[in-house]
Design goal:
By secondary structure, the chain is of the alpha+beta class. It has eleven helices and 13 strands. Bound molecules: alpha-D-galactopyranose.
Amino acid sequence: MADSTGTPRPVGEADLLVEHARAFRGRFGAGARPRLYFSPGRVNLMGAHLDYNGGPVMPTAIDRGTFLALAPRSDGRIALASTLDSALVEVDLAHLPSERAGRWADYPLGVLREVLSLARARGARGSGLDVLFGGNLPVGAGLSSSASMCVGTAFALDSVWGLDLARLDLVNAALRAERGFVGVQCGIMDPYAVGLAREGALLWLDCKDGSSEYLPFDHARLSIAVADTLVRRELAQGAFNERVAQCRAAFEALRIHQPEATCLRDVRYETLAEHQAGLDPTIARRAHHVIREVARTFSARDALRRGDAGGFGVEMTRAHDSMRELFDVSVPELDRLVESAVGTPGVHGARLTGAGFGGCAVILLEKGAEAELTRRLHADFSATFGRAPVVEVYGGDAGPREIQA
Ligand code: GLA
């Protein structure tokens, strides 16, 4: 891209969305003038597998995400298309499917059902739409492509149907869609991280009561790099649901000894230490991870507040070790990335982000150290696995919005 003086300028979101509008016309007709929306992905820096245990998490939105183009149609039907799929999914607003079909369109269909019922509760009716999804976020990489799509869909439907729903209503509609319709037992972190994003801040979200605050993040001094192993595990969803069930089992067993506890996050380390012999060893390891990770996440917040990036990074790397040894959600490719990242000058810490089982490592580093980090990650990873990871430095993001392209 170049401006009128011929000077190259970076490709911005408006340019990307212009491309997306072009793709929309290719799919739905040359005359269409869609409205365009962007919804970010997220990285989680601390609080691994804590959201569904009522613990605190510290995610931040990134400047990659889902693009949506929507244009009205008059026949009361909704057509869903994706730049990643040649098939078109068409449904009638009056007869939305009540069962998932095991395909990507389940996500927006689940959201459609939720937003439509919120609309009807306010006496409004939805109207037909052609919708094209696309984006620049790797799918299934632990960067919350599904929450990005679901919250983005809720936001865009609210906007084109003129509903004026509260942001938290949209976030919760996205969450219900994923849990109820798609069938993933996910916690609240991802839709909250996307929907409540604020540029230049990490979100501190207490998943026990849903309270949140923004923690300033010094983008002038620090960078967040993400290294993608390109490993995608087909069965990750089942393994994730299994972790949720194991944590539930740990809580059920331990609450007997600490009756005031309302979730695993509330269980004290002393309670676990005293009663772990009575637990299945795998369940005990899961509980150890959760209870220690809660303490690490508070300690990382304290470090951030006193400007101690090194102290924050140490907790990130400890979190990774715990996910590898106690929670069993890492893979050798992620361990390799974390190991070579933390050996690089200027790097404060690294860990896998998202659920694990492949996907990405997130790395906290000093500004200026990115080139050396990328060089080392490429060299070390290629030496072990014979191929390169994808390493990127992400900026922050302000959350879902309409884009005038
Ligand atoms: C996935 C889930 C989140 C959270 C993380 C692990 O991303 O969608 O709710 O549980 O894994 O921290």
